[in-house]
Each structure stands twice: as structure tokens, then as C-alpha cells.
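Materials and Methods. Structural model of SAM-dependent methyltransferase. The 231-residue sequence of SAM-dependent methyltransferase from Lysinibacillus alkalisoli was retrieved and submitted for structure prediction as follows.
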Amino acid sequence: MNAQKLSERLAAVASFVPTGSTVADIGSDHAYLPCYLIHQKIATHAIAGEVVKGPYESARSQVQQEGLTNQVTVRLADGLQAITPEDQVDTITIAGMGGPLIASILAKTPSALTNVTRLILQPNIHARAIREWAMHNGFAILDEMIMEEDDKIYEVIVLQRGEMTLTEKQLLFGPLLSERKAPAFIKKWQGELAQWHKILEAIAQAENTTAMIEKRKELQYKIEMAEAILS
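The predicted structure was written out as C-alpha cells:
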């Protein structure tokens, strides 16, 4: 992977970036995605934000090598603090983190979202946290994608300004993903279902404390939802 050819998951993220946008890529690592968006004339300007010094230096070096220092700004900052009002960022990408971490980044600096009309988020795990955050913060799901790359399954959630209400099933499985049922979706939830059955079996004989009863109920509920979707 490099700034000319992205991995499949980052290419999926890039595919949802509107042409002519100003993008902030948070947790940019080597800044491959911002550089790619400029090279492909998708974005007019990009911010590459990094909170860790090593990846920040890697991103700076990459941008210099690509000859894009006038179009890609690299900043060492915590999450959305990499964005200033003067940047006029309208699109934010965050890829390669857990869903709860992505949600916490978005929640920590809400003022940075004032001019943002699109969020393209690629959680490695627990995508539900992002859907919950969106539902309570004026964003709605525009699209969702799921794919397998190098034996790992990734989801991409695309949000735009709007209101939405999701059911428990939609929060967990994704409203669009659960309708489309792509092969990667089936594989992911068959694996989760098998794991839930194992856990339920393992705790079947555990003491009937209030917490344990609730745990069994929760697992049984998830199992029933998954079996209904996969049937």
C-alpha cells in the first residue's frame, strides 16, 4: 500500500469522499489516504491529523515525498483538535480504530464538526458505538459497506447530517448491511453467533446472580436476532 494504491479498506473509504471536498483524516498514520485523495483530484485540500509523534513524522515525510506540502497539512494533535475553523473541513475520515474510540473522538470536540457534512468511518470492531453516537448527534447513515481483506472483516459507515432512529437490530447489525447480507456480513455474524453459543453454554451452569441472569438474557436476545437475520 502507498499513496498511489490504497488497501481495499482505505480505497472503500476514499470512494465515499465527495469530489471537491476539504478532508480531515484523523489518525492518518502515513497520510496515504489524504495524499491519494489529492493525487486523484477528489479532495482540494486535506488535513492529516496524528496524536502520536512517530506516525506524525511519517506522515510529514510522506507528504514531502509526494510533493503535496501545499495541499496536505500534517498536524500533531489529539483527534479533531487537528481541525481549525479556518480549514473549512466538510468531510472527516477516521479509519482503523475501534468503534467506541471513533465515537469518543467525535464526541470529544463537537465544535470541530460545525461545518462537516459527511463522516466516513471505518471501525475495526464494535461499529454499533458509531451508529449510537450518530443517532444522538444529528447524523444519519447514508451508506454502509462490509468487506474482507487479509482474513479480517471491516465495516465502513458513511454519515451525513440528518435524523434517524434505529432499532436494536439495526444498531448491532447495520440497517443497510442487514438488508444486503453480503458474503462478508454472513461470515462475520456466523462467527459471532458461534461465539455467543459457546459463551452461553459455558455460563449455563453458573450461579444465578442478577448479573448472570441478565448476561444470559442479553446473549439469548443477540442469538435470536442473529439467527433471524441469517436464516
